[in-house]
Structures are given as structure tokens and as C-alpha cells.
Write a structure and sequence with these properties.
349 residues; alpha+beta; four-stranded antiparallel sheet; 37% helix
Length: 349
């Protein structure tokens, strides 16, 4: 590609970085703490795409990059590669989730009830120019919502509308790890879900929206959106006892397709699924829809696994786009001379 180093040497590079830092202003522990408190949903997106649940490090990466999400994701992923793997968490079950929001568009009511939780879905989209204080907590509810709620899809399975739930895989090295292994095609189910989990929110939304608008075969019904705190349960290496190492913010979404021929020719619903670290509803609805769409046979790009998973990878996509800032004058001169009818072999002046 005929790249060359920036002229001016190390001093020019240091001065360019110093100017960047001056434009950002001072970076201290207080700023990092304020970002962590004020922008939890942005940090959730950053941690999900960075494959690392560490709110304080996500806030540091955001402050260090001036809010450039692609650079911040790269910083988190680069730091993650330096960390050893100490163990494998146990699979999640509904009873292990501390659910704070759980809604379904498929039914007016669902087992356990609709739980709105923290949301602006029903609020006016207005800018508030006066300072906003946190409202006081409400008390005296007639009945407290259950914190451990069943999956809505389990009701479908009990009534023969969905295929039985596959057995949970054995946690451990048998499950492919996308943070340490390359993405293969056709992708194993575990790799597909991992790729969607850490995919770029904007990329997933764009492809999902294209599919929803009619460029694909999926017009989904949201079966469930859930925001929760998930126990990170580990097995003690000596005693074998399962214990909790803490909680992380976790979200998941399920969408339903129309009835399609199932095993034995019996019509059944198909389920698209997505989950990620942090709370990121819009990404998960689009990702679950793409999960269902990638099983369809129509040759639309949003139905093609390689197209979807490769082009929603934020570090690779952002890095390839940014690399065009590197000097390309030799290739450009080659194209220019070819257009003028001169030989393409030229010396790098």
C-alpha cells in the first residue's frame, strides 16, 4: 500500500498529541468518576462493544479519547488482551437475574406482569434547560414486582409454539471464545451470538432497520426485552462449590418471526435472540432480528451471516476506514498516470 512515516519525526508526533490533549482539557480521577455517574448507558454500550465489563475503565477510555467511541472501544479491547483468564462463569438462568425491566409487545400481559423499570419510552422528548434533580423514590406500592421472572419464550414452548429449548452448553474451553479465536463461517451459534453481543450499535441498527423496512424477510414481534443485574457465578477450583463473584448489568432481547414449517411439517414460531453486557435495548432488538434473519434463505445482505457479522465489527470497520488517513500518494499517482495513459511503474518521489 506504500505507506510512509509522518514527516517531522518524533517531535512532530509528540506536539500533535500535546495539542490534542490541550483541546480536551485536564483529565483526572474526578472527571472519570463524573462520567461514570452521568453517562451509564453510554458506558454500557462501550463495555458491550469492548467485551470488558469495567465501568471505571470505560469512563477512563471515554475521557482519554474525548468521547470517540471507536477509539475508546479499541482501548478497552487492547487492555482486555493483557488480562489472564481465571475461570468460566456458569450459565445464566432466569432465577439468577435481578430483573429491573421486562416488557413484551407480543401480549397485553405476561406471566409476572409487564415491568416498565427505568425508561423514557413514555416521556416527552423535550430539552430541559433548567437543572434536573433526581426525583424522590416512590413508596407505598400496593404490590412489589417479582425480581425473578420467567422467560416469556418458556410460555411459548410449554404451549408447543416454539421448538424445545436446547440444552445449555457445558461452560469452559469447549465454548468458542471470539476474543481469542477468529470468527469462522458458517459461524457456530456461540460465535454468532458473541459477535452480535459486541457488534457496533450503529451498524447493527442500520442493517436491522433495512431489514425491517422491507429489504429482508423479517418483520419481528418483540417477545421480550429484559434489563437485569446478572450474578457472575463461578465454580471454586478446590471445593467445586458455585459462588457469586458479583453482579453486572445485563440485557437481552427476543423477537418472534411469523409461523414457518417446523420439524415434521408442523408450523412453529422462530426465535431471534441477542444479549450483551450493559443495557442497550435498541441494539439488542435489531441484533435479535438479524439473528433470525441470518437463518433465512433470501440473498439479501442482512440475511448473509458473513456480511452482517463482518461489517458490524467496530474495531475492524473503524480501523479500516481510519487507515485511509495514512499516506496513499503512490497509489493515487499510479491511478493518475494510468488515467493519462502513462506507465503505472513510477518511483516514489
Amino acid at each position: 500500500m506504500a505507506y510512509v512515516a509522518a514527516r517531522g519525526g518524533e517531535e512532530a508526533i509528540q506536539q500533535a498529541e500535546a495539542l490534542y490533549r490541550r483541546l480536551l482539557g485536564p483529565l483526572d480521577a474526578g472527571l472519570v468518576r463524573r462520567l461514570e455517574q452521568a453517562l451509564p448507558y453510554l458506558l454500557d454500550r462501550l463495555m458491550g462493544e469492548g467485551s470488558l465489563y469495567a465501568p471505571e475503565l470505560a469512563a477512563l477510555a471515554l475521557a482519554q479519547t474525548g468521547g470517540d467511541l471507536y477509539e475508546a472501544v479499541l482501548l478497552l479491547r487492547a487492555y482486555r488482551t493483557t488480562l489472564p483468564r481465571l475461570g468460566y462463569a456458569e450459565p445464566l438462568e432466569p432465577e439468577a437475574l435481578l430483573t429491573v425491566r421486562r416488557i413484551s409487545a407480543a401480549f397485553k400481559d405476561i406471566p409476572g406482569g409487564q415491568v416498565l423499570g427505568p425508561t423514557l419510552d413514555y416521556s416527552h422528548r423535550l430539552l430541559h434547560f433548567e437543572p434536573q434533580e433526581a426525583p424522590p423514590a416512590r413508596t407505598g406500592a400496593e404490590a412489589q414486582a417479582s425480581l425473578h421472572l420467567p422467560f416469556v419464550a418458556d410460555w411459548h414452548r410449554q404451549n408447543g409454539l416454539l421448538a424445545p429449548r436446547p440444552p445449555d452448553p457445558t461452560p469452559g474451553p469447549e465454548i468458542p471464545d471470539l476474543t481469542r479465536e477468529p470468527l469462522l463461517f458458517p459461524a457456530p451459534r456461540a460465535q454468532r451470538l458473541q459477535a452480535l453481543s459486541r457488534a457496533d450499535t450503529g451498524g447493527v441498527l442500520a442493517l436491522g432497520y433495512a431489514n425491517m423496512r422491507g429489504y429482508g424477510a423479517i418483520h419481528p414481534t418483540v417477545n421480550e426485552v429484559r434489563l437485569a443485574y446478572a450474578e457472575v457465578r463461578l465454580r471454586h477450583p478446590v471445593t467445586g462449590a458455585v459462588f457469586s463473584a458479583g453482579r453486572v448489568r445485563y440485557s437481552q432481547a427476543e423477537v418472534l418471526t411469523k409461523f414457518r414449517p417446523g420439524p415434521g411439517g408442523k408450523p412453529a414460531l422462530e426465535l431471534g435472540f441477542a444479549a450483551t453486557l450493559g443495557w442497550n435495548e435498541v441494539k439488542l432488538i435489531a441484533a435479535a432480528m438479524l439473528d433470525a434473519a441470518m437463518d433465512q434463505g433470501e440473498p439479501h445482505p442482512a440475511h448473509t451471516e458473513e456480511f452482517v457479522l463482518s461489517h458490524t465489527e467496530p474495531v475492524e470497520a473503524g480501523g479500516f476506514c481510519i487507515h485511509y488517513k495514512l499516506p496513499h500518494y503512490v497509489t493515487f499517482l499510479s491511478n493518475l498516470l494510468a488515467h493519462q495513459g502513462q506507465p503505472e511503474e513510477v518511483e516514489d518521489a
